[in-house]
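Researcher: We're reviewing a set of sequences before deciding which ones to prioritize for further study. For each one, I'd like a predicted 3D structure that I can look through quickly. This is AMP-binding protein. If possible, include the structure in token form so it fits the rest of the review sheet.
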Amino acid sequence: MSVLFPALHAASGNEAVRFGDRALSHAGLAAAAGSLVPRLTGAGRVAVWATPSLETAVGVVAALLAGAAVVPLNPKTGERELAHIVADSAPSLVLAAAGERLPKALGGLERIDVPTAGPAVEVPAEPSAEAPAFVVYTSGTTGPPKGAVLPRRAVVATLDALAEAWQWTGDDVLVHALPLFHVHGLILGVLGPLRRGGSVRHLGRFSTDGVARELAAGGTMLFGVPTMYHRLAEALEDDQELAKALAGARLLVSGSAALPVHDHERITAATGRHVIERYGMTETLMNTSIRADGEARPGTVGLPLPGVELRLVDEAGGELTAYDGESVGEIQVRGANLFTEYLNRPDATAAAFDGDWFRTGDMAIRDPDGYVRIVGRKATDLIKSGGYKIGAGEVENALLEHPGVREAAVTGEPDADLGERIVAWVVPADPAAPPSAEELADHVANRLAPHKRPRVVRFLDALPRNDMGKIMKRALHDV
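Model: Here's the predicted structure for AMP-binding protein, in token form for your review sheet.
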């Protein structure tokens, strides 16, 4: 396996990471992280209190250089869930910024405060490709979160595939404000620039002003989630400096959930730039993406990345071989990007695979040219109504094209006649004058098909979302 961080071994003087006014070069990062390596060697698994800080970046790199597996911890996790993660992953110690208060669930672990400087050291040799790099906890539909064990080869495979697809080089400067306890913000958003020898500027907290400032000051790439791009689209109407900054970026990437077509269109109209989408998950890292030199087609997540095999499987387990833009199947993938196992859960690991194909639980169709169009989660977004299989995502996009709709989510609920009926959860653009249910149903029927129209419309002040901006559909029925 290739060296994970070539620029650290080369002790490059170029800036590697910046959080606000605090920054380290690749050489400085190698020194700070390297000073921790002797204390982490042989540690097995290491927890990292993953605040959006320079210390998190240093701690993660140090653990990886030492051959330990990183367990990134979300500082907002509740005590009960955090206690489960600590008991399940059994880290030997926890890394945190000096002065950071840690919860009681971490009280039994040795704590090491992460330095941000150190003497120049020789970076140690890399562990094997199959050595665990991360244990990232992901919530399922039932039960406590499961720890997905990601080997080093999966990190390398994904980052190199993205570099090829996005023409990502050491000259790129990535801007983002994503959490550092998820794959998106940490592995793609921090390790990606480090592997390329480029740099990342983390905003700490997302703001449209911060995005404009950093892109205008040399940023070439922006990573975000749909909530962030929606706020950018809203601000663009009155902010010419933001429009100019986004127009100057080489690549605008959205992930973690589908970006509504309406926001795609507003950003392109104001900046001339297209937002590209990619598709991945904790267990697989990245599977598909729009290429930097490909067609940016709103509503799709592009083609399988180099080294990733992807197929669609019907309910009977048969592969859908025709790319007809209509047939819906579950996405299954295989390749070097896959996780090794769910920690301590051989039953769940076995259930997640069909042979060597990973069952993603995501439903999609493929266009005739192979582009993948995700229509939703198998468990929550595939609605069987009147004998039809309907993806919630396409109905949501249609609703978002209505001028009276600010946000929308679509679910199914039992119906004695149809099996399931389509329910639209809508945040109106003007709460004082929302569109009628009949108007929205007709709007969808005219754009898609009559059987895809919502039979029920429920208006909300806001949709429940998680830290990554994903709509928590299971919480909608509790609203």
